[in-house]
Amino acid sequence: MTHQSHETAKLTIGDKTLDLPIYHGTVGPDVIDIRRLYSEGGVFAFDPGYTSTGSCESAITYIDGDKGQLLYRGYPIEQLAAKSHFLEVAYLLLYGELPTAEQMEDFESRVTNHTMLHEQMAYFFRGFRRDAHPMAVVCGIMGAMSAFYHDSTDINDAWQREVATIRMIAKMPTIVAWAFKYHVGQPFVYPRNNLDYASNFLNMCFSVPATDYVVDPILSRAMDRIFTLHADHEQNASTSTVRLASSSGANPFACIAAGVACLWGPAHGGANEAALMMLREIGTPDRIPEFIARARDKDDPFRLMGFGHRVYKNFDPRAKVMKQSADEVLGLLGIERNPTLQVAKELERIALEDPYFIEKKLYPNVDFYSGIILDAMGFPTSMFTPIFALARTVGWISQWKEMIEDPQLKIGRPRQLYTGATLRDYVDVENR
Ligand code: CMC
User: Fold this and answer.
1) What is the CA radius of gyration of the chain?
2) CA-CA distance, 345 to 47, in Å (whole number)?
3) Residues 238, 263: contact at Cβ < 8 Å?
4) Measured from the CA of 269, which atom of ligand 1 is nearest?
């Protein structure tokens, strides 16, 4: 809840002075309310990339980029990663508080009982080419859910919103696992409700009818941690996309599909895939200086993937946990000597000592390590971003739910600084 300060920001435009209210959040920088800027000042604010613009009021996730701090509903990500598990974190993000044992049991049972997809959806998967990128499939299937679950598309009905919420969280692992199975040409594996959320996902990805598959608890814990660390991240590009799409009143499945589409880009969720491909391209530690030099070269568009963040100007706290998880998983699988990991460790060491990266505050982000873990688990790089989407679904839904329940909800409609042609008359083709 915002608190208006007694101070105002004075803005002088020509002969007009506007007194703009200043609001305090519970923590973090104050904001200046510029909603009257156009009606009273006749000007718009200009902020491409929204580097200084708060687009909404939110009580879900807080990031302090200078401290390298990430809080879900006030709880530090490190504590949640160590002591909680993904479905408990999902409950926390959605409903605001940690659940009691009873509430957890009820939530877990509701999620577990909605993991199957409408059988007709299997045919929908089969309409894609086998070599389609799994992100394209996940995006298409998520959008198509509105064609399969008509009874949970009315955003004005609280019960339907809740059903859509549970459906998306429950079915996303099945969707992502089936996109994987389809991609590798294996039969779809149905969900098993006797397994926990992460183990069920791993089972749907790696078991085949011909042989038994037993989920290793260390791998399932690492998977669950990847889900927890990616669950929400404040008003990032894909979350803002979900909010913008839902501001028009679009159905929940369409809005989350929009989030999946935005996440795909290499500057956002696609960075985990791009980071691993880059590590493989580097190949051996002796080639690292060549790539560092390219990253520093202003005339070369190359960037070190998995480094840098819009908000974190200190270490990404998710990366610290992920790094520890990577060591555990690679230790279990006995592949600490994996060449990609050797390149990753050496690249991290060199970049952290390099004046360019120090000066620009470019630290490894979560995607730098998550790809290494997923690769070791046996996922192809094309599955990295779909797994990020699976985890982020709960964040997108929490933010969507918060927005729909906000009485101040308004359609998102940014303005622009127009630099095109001014009024001119149409010229017939023979006179051009
Ligand atoms: N390698 C080399 N130089 C970089 C990098 C990088 N990875 N990231 C930023 N820079 C430089 C950039 O060239 C610019 O230099 P200058 O001031 O001389 O023009 C300066 O640092 C600031 O960069 P920016 O693009 O203005 O910063 P931004 O806040 O707009 O971008 C970013 C943030 C994440 C898009 C960017 O750091 C990047 O492209 N990183 C690589 C992609 C990546 O790993 N993305 C995953 C983000 S974490 C997962 C998620 O939350 O989605």
Assistant:
1) 23
2) 37
3) yes
4) 52
User: How many Å apart are CA 350 and CA 290, to the nearest integer?
Assistant: 12
Q: For residue 188, what are the contacts with CB-CB under 8 A and spacing of at least 6?
A: 122, 125, 178, 181, 182
Atom of ligand 1 nearest to the CA of 275: 44
Residue with tokens 């790696």: 206
Question: With a 6 A CB cut-off, is 268 part of the ligand 1 pocket?
Answer: yes
Query: What letter does residue 116 receive in the DSSP assignment?
Result: S
Read off the pLDDT of residues 67-105 as tens digits, 9 standing for 90 and up: 999 999 999 999 999 999 999 999 999 999 999 999 999
| 231 Cβ closer than 6 Å to some ligand 1 atom | no
Which of 185, 167, 164, 188 has its CA nearest to residue 176?
188
- Supply the DSSP symbol for 21: E
244-277: per-residue pLDDT in tens?
999 999 999 999 999 999 999 988 888 888 888 9
Q: Which residues of the chain have pLDDT under 70?
A: 1-2, 336
161 lines ligand 1 (CB under 6 A): no
pLDDT tens string 145-179: 999 999 999 999 999 999 999 999 999 999 999 99
Closest CA to 198 of 224, 170, 168, 234: 224
C-alpha 232 – ligand 1 centre gap (Å): 20
Which long-range contacts (C-beta less than 8 Å, at least 24 apart) are formed by 196-200? 196/85, 196/87, 196/220, 196/224, 197/85, 197/86, 197/87, 197/111, 197/173, 197/224, 197/227, 198/86, 198/223, 198/224, 198/227, 199/223, 200/115, 200/173
For the annotated catalytic residues, the residue numbers are: 309, 367
Q: Residues 184, 131: contact at Cβ < 8 Å?
A: no
| Contact by Cβ (8 Å): 361, 199 | no
**CB 319 less than 6 A from any atom of ligand 1:** no
Residue nearest atom 37 of ligand 1, based on CA coordinates: 308
The answer to whether the CB of 401 falls within 8 A of the CB of 354 is: no
pTM over 0.70: yes
